[in-house]
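User: Run a structure prediction on this.
Assistant: Running it now.
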Amino acid sequence: MFGKVMEIPQSEKTPFYPRSPYGVSKLFSHWITVNYRESYNLHASSGILFNHESPLRGSEFVTKKVTSTLARIRKGSSEILEVGNVSAKRDWGFAGDYVEAMYRMLQQKSPDDYVIATGETHSVKEFIDLSLKYLDFKYKWIGKGLSKKVIDTTSGKTLVKINKSYFRPAEVDLLIGKPQKAIRKLKWKPKTKLKKLVKIMIDHDMAQK
């Protein structure tokens, strides 16, 4: 919804600037919620949720793709993790924490709109690094640009490489939410740091057959 961000960090008052059909559709959902609330006095709140991840995340999303692919490689798969822009930064939180925020919205006397986020931002590269380290890979990044990749320093095998086809036509470079309103009014705060989130996701992926 914020896409090409107009300010950093992004709050409920930040102008929207979606950069994909997915973001545009979310914006419709947000405004139709506001419209029905104001038109029909519905108890309808809009949660502007930043990226929220869990083991249930679909494999088309980069976080799940990273954890599940690296888990399979750790278990012996010969595949290579292919990713796009590893410099893109996101505000990643745990879906379980965010569901609690949704619940708290619905317990309020009056409906409202809330940014739900961690207030921290991390790059895709950082997420990959945390995953590799948790899986106890001995590795290093080599190369630059599209030639950038991760190699296993023990075997020499390529673990991660850049694939140009995964770059977005209209990239979102930086997302970081400002959840102060939710913290103040909902008495909510995110509990799960990124390192723990990576552990939760990888533990699940490693348990799969």
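The chain has one domain: 21-207.
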